[in-house]
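Predict structure. Chain length: 292.
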Amino acid sequence: MSRIVLLAAFLAALGPAAPRAQAQEARWEFGVSAGRMMPLFSTTFTSRFTAPWLYDPSNTADIEQTVRIRAEGALGIAARIGRLVSSRWGIELAVDHFEDVVSGRNPDYAVGLDYVSRQPPDYTPRSIQRAEHRSWPDTEGTASQTTVAAAVFYRAALSRSVFLDFSAGPALSWLTVEASSLGFSDYWFGGHSVVFSQDYALPYTLSASFVPGLRLACRLQVELTRGIRLGLEAVGLAAVRSGADFELRPPDPEAAALLHRTLDEIEKLMGPPKPFLAPSFARLSAGLTIAL
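Prediction complete.
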């Protein structure tokens, strides 16, 4: 009889233990990772405008330049916070960030001149139209992007310590490109209608904010010890092609000393170009997750 009582007491003690163990399973996860970021954005835009000559606005210069920008690829970092809502399903908030180098091979810089010349010996006004083409420096600069995504993930347990996650959800991105060199030229007459000119390679900023997209991720995790996991993660972002804001930046002091106009005057003459950016990327990284 005493043995039966002891066995019943033992089973009663085991009964509530299972729910307590289940309640103590890790629900919150915090992860960081770093790896190779491969930005997939590239853009080409055309700057086309008419600038009046200095001191004689009746003479004009029609300027056209095609600018190409392409990302090179760099180290990216990411962080996420997730919560399991069942044994297999969870939700997470993820942040990706990278800073990259951009470049681009630009075609020739083209200028069409339309002016009236009065040259010796008779100084008779003569209308002249001519075209100029010259090589232009390639694009150089940097890009910075931050993406925030809210996602649902599904977890497959490959073994007691190996997990495979699949994640998908909407994302918003902020992308800023700082580059050079956008062309502008001033023309003016010297004595005897001798034509003088000055070219400027101006730095500029392109920025696209709140660009929507879809973020997909696949994450393989291995639990080293309770609550500590190492993992590999592949992430892809498909972002919408969005119009970017354009702004000229002040050049360095040496170049600024050569300007005959203010940046505001130049930007007003140029009119803002209308570039488009799609801040898509792919990333392969390794990271650490802490489960609580």
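Summary: Residues 2-14 form the longest helix (13 residues).
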